[in-house]
Structure formats: C-alpha cells, structure tokens
Amino acid sequence: MTKRFGFTLAEVLITLGIIGVVAAMTIPTLISNTNGAQFKTAYKKALSTLNQAVLMNIAMEDTDLSTLAADTGTSSDTFGTNAGSLGLMLKGRMQSATEISDSYTTAPTLTEGSGDDATTPVVTYTLNCTGSADNWTPPADPANGELADECDSDGTIKVSVTMDATPANYAKYSFADGTAFWYFKNAHDCTDSAAVQNNCYGFIDVNGATGPNTVISCANADAGSCESSEITDLFPVIFHGQTFEPATASARAVLFGK
After folding, report:
1. Is residue 61 within a helix (H) or strand (E), and if so which, with residue range?
2. For the chain, how are helix, strand and coil distributed in percent, rounded to 5?
C-alpha cells in the first residue's frame, strides 16, 4: 500500500480558492472599519485642538468666538490676516498650521451622500426660549433657518439651518499632521444664540487632500448610532462662544456614540 505524505495539486488549488473567496469578502470590511476608527480618532483630536485654541485665546486675549469678524481675505496670502477673524485667531494660537488657503487642487463635495441622493448638510442647533415654563416664547427665526414647532419643557427649541455647500466660500486651515479645518469665511459674531444666523460653521477634514473627501452621513444618526463602515473624512462642526462642537446628527453620533 502506498502512503501519501502530502496534498495533491487539486487539493491545494481548492484550498487557495476558498481562502481567496473569504479574503475577498472580508478584507474590504476590515479596511473600511480600520479607516473608520482612524477617522474617528483624528476627528476627536482635531475637535479637541480647536477647543484648546479657543481657551488659550480667552486666557491670553480675554476674547472668545462671540467677537469674531468675517475673514475678508480673497486669496491664500490674505486669509487670516484681518483683525478679529477666525483664521487670525487660529494662526496665533496654533503653531502647527502649515497654511491657510481657499481650496484643494480638487475641492471636496460638501454634501452628504452622492449622486441623486446627495443632500446639503443641515446644522441642528439649540436656542433658548424666553418667558417662563407657563409661557415660553420662541426666539426670532434665524435667517434661512427653520425652528421646531414649539419650545421644549426645559425652555429650549431646535433650529435647523442648511449649510453652504460651495467650497469657494470657505477658507482651509491646514495642520501639520495633515488634518484640515474648513471655516465659512463670513463667520462673525459667533455668540451662543446667533451662531446659525452668522454662518459660524465649517468642516473638519481628518486627512486633508486625501480622499474620499466625503461628508459623514450615518443611517441611524438620529438614534445616536454610526457604523465604522459609514464613517468618512469630513465632519460638520459649529462654533460659538467658547466651543467647537458637532453640527449634524451624524457628526454627533460619531463623537458621542459607542
């Protein structure tokens, strides 16, 4: 009787084929989950860095985001040069900047989703009502905004404002680590009650010019959930008073979700 001490060529090929099929099915998911985790970490780091810059400005200049002036720059040489602008504040408080410019070689698409399903991100923001628990009065409707139907029992009301999706209306502040922050150039007087009216919003881009340059959009964002495979590299933020914070439900889901 002849003993066999190895595998036949057919057995080896079948095994390799099975491994190839399994790899083809799992590797894209693994890569997507890895990218999602990296994007999430970079997003949290960038948001923390921006908030630290505000706190430093308060300590050194005794001013916060409520006194911002619009950035009137028209080119890379003039962004962040006028007194009171966000760009100038960031340049003064963050030594890791490499440049402030108006766009990438290929500008990102500042919409959620793609193709026919693409929508412009909507900032959701809470304002305080006036009056008392027996008779809450909503604040004035912000420009181009939409107020919820009535004040909540805690004296607040939700405001929704469609973000501007034209990259040319933003200036890009680049960090040395490759992260970038797009801020709306006309942002001004970013108080806690007027941030949405005064265009006090922007996008954190966690990997700069590298793709996919896509705004985060999570299917279950309203429930506070966002899968790793859904996490992309552009995160809408709103800034006011002493704070930079997520501007959309998807951005909040990534920051606060499990």
Report:
1. helix 9-61
2. 35, 25, 45
Coil, helix or strand for 177? coil
Nearest 5°: the CA angle 9, 13, 19 is 145
- Asked whether 80 and 93 are in contact (CB, 8 A), the reply is no
Which runs of E-coded beta strand occur in the chain? 97-101, 109-112, 122-128, 130-132, 135-137, 145-147, 156-162, 170-175, 180-184, 201-205, 214-215, 234-240, 243-246
Beta-carbon contacts of residue 191 (< 8 Å; ≥ 6 apart) = 66, 198, 240, 241
Sign of CA dihedral 35, 163, 114, 209: negative
- What is the pLDDT confidence band of residue 124, given thresholds at 50, 70 and 90? confident
- 208, with CB counted inside 10 A (0-12, 13-18, 19+), is middle
Identity (one letter) of the amino acid at 68?
Answer: L
How many Cβ atoms from other residues are within 10 Å of residue 35's Cβ? 17
Structure pTM? 0.80
Q: Compute the distance between CA of residue 96 and CA of residue 244 in angstroms, rounded to an integer.
A: 18
How far apart are alpha carbons 77 and 74 in whole angstroms? 8
CA distance 201 to 121: 11
DSSP assignment letter at 163: P
DSSP code of 150? S
Asked if residue 167 has a cis previous peptide bond (ω within 30° of 0), the answer is no
> Which residues fall within 8 angstroms of residue 252, CB to CB, at 6 or more apart?
221, 224, 246
Q: Which whole number is the average pLDDT over 5-12? A: 72
The DSSP symbol for 69 reads: B
Sequence letter at residue 180: A
